[in-house]
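Feature request, filed as a ticket because there's no other form

It would be nice if the structure record came with a short human-readable summary line next to the tokens. Right now we just get the raw output. Example of a typical job, pasted below so the devs can see what we mean:
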Amino acid sequence: MSDNGNKIGVLVMSYGTPESMDDVEAYYTHIRRGHAPTPEQLAELTDRYEAIVGGVFPLRENTNSQVAGLQDKLETMAPGQYVCYQGLKHARPYIEDGVEAMAKDGIKQAVAIVLAPHYSTMSIGSYMKRAQAKADELGIELATVESYHLHPKLISAFTDRVKNGLKKLSVSSGGEAPVRVLFSAHSLPEKIRELGDPYEKQLMETSAAVAEAAEVKDWQFTWQSAGRTREPWLGPDILETMAALGEEGVKAILVAPVGFVSDHLEVLYDLDIEAKAEAAKLGMTLERIAMLNKDPLYMETLAESVVAALKV
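Raw output as currently delivered:
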């Protein structure tokens, strides 16, 4: 046992990504709840990783960096009080591994937070359920941060990126107009609406707050990266939205994927490759905002949300 027993544990959770190309099949199998992908499905995912990273996985590096950044920020705010642990949904260290590491270090009190600002029962809810079950088993008192989608510093960080993105778009498009800002996030099955899930509402609130702060009048929300299942997913997809905007005469698009906080497959492939290719076909210019990654304002958002969770 380490000397962390008197500290508060912080379980920082994220979706997870393979460590190398050799791990892609096992990772995909875990996402599919133990069902191995078909050779065609595996080849498609592998090709996407090869297209963006060539065997290096930015999400893992970025997640490690974000956890380290949060640790540094908490240490500045409250020296010696907090220690961060990582738990991933679909890769090692799994969520349960992170909780077990806390228990081995003698941690009795902890806070769980996810590197995603918006709550859904199908995303954040599932992370928290796994973390809570393991914490209960090991005798750890666990507080949770369910969302932080309107934290002022998060909105400020996104606002800065939208302003900078519009400047970049003006240059790359030659100042063509009209311009549309598309806020986006990962789609989920439509059934969440029947459950009264707050995911969609929170995303709209974040988008509206950023648009107002950035003084953007011409914007809308769209979905991306839907799963390929038989059930319907929230739409329209960004490629469908872009086609409609082309018919409207929109010449330039700035994508602001506010549902994501890091560079990874859904950003580097779905937007930077797939959506950009579609924009070229439509005769449009497309840029996207820079991701938060280890932005100081995002680190402060996380740290302040962790500290606040213990005061509830």
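Something like this underneath would help us a lot:
The mean pLDDT is 94.
The longest strand covers residues 179-186.
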